[in-house]
Amino acid sequence: MPKIYLASKSPRRQELLKLMGLEYTLYIRDIDESYPESLKTTEVAEFIANKKAEAFTVAEEGVMITADTIVVVDNEILGKPNDAEDAFAMLKKLSGRKHQVITGVCVVAKDKKTSFSVTTDVYFKTITDTDINFYIENYKPFDKAGAYGIQEWIGVTAIEKIDGSYTNVVGLPTERLYTELKNFGFL
Fold first, then answer.
1. Which residues does 158 contact at the CB level (< 8 Å), separation at least 6?
2. Per-residue confidence at 179, pLDDT binned at 50, 70, 90?
3. Percentage of the chain with pLDDT > 90?
4. In sequence order, what are the residues at sequence separation of 6 or more whose Cβ sits closer than 8 angstroms to the Cβ of residue 142?
5. Catalytic amino acids?
6. Pick from 134, 133, 155: nearest CA to 144
């Protein structure tokens, strides 16, 4: 079986690959996640996933997976919050509204490359300031785009519905990734 390499610090992506039954080797490196301002919001996550892939060399028998997730509301990208105040402002902006979670993924082998993005609509009910503060204080969502994790307390108490892939909102659209890995001949 060819080796699978995951270039991601995200424990959620690592767990999702394990849930897919895949063994992988982890590669972690700090990558500049900037992007041209001229990109459409729908293109940013895939652009960054490709940028991350360019930072690695793929072994002859392996496939590298990179990904990036963003949250978009009113055509504004919400990245990872800088602090509790920033997280509060993001969650307040999402409260009572629909937003999109977009994950870009790049899959690279020695002689083949593909990238794609998946979009999921997420609908939050109105969240009180008290609940937002409780979530931030207890779950410290500073490593998550949009300042929340669907798999955490806020996901089970404040998300009314989603339209699309649940695993995409967690951080890796496993359904589409599975198909792409099969197309590459890695499954």
1. 95, 124, 125, 127, 131
2. very high
3. 83
4. 80, 81, 82, 83, 87
5. 68
6. 155
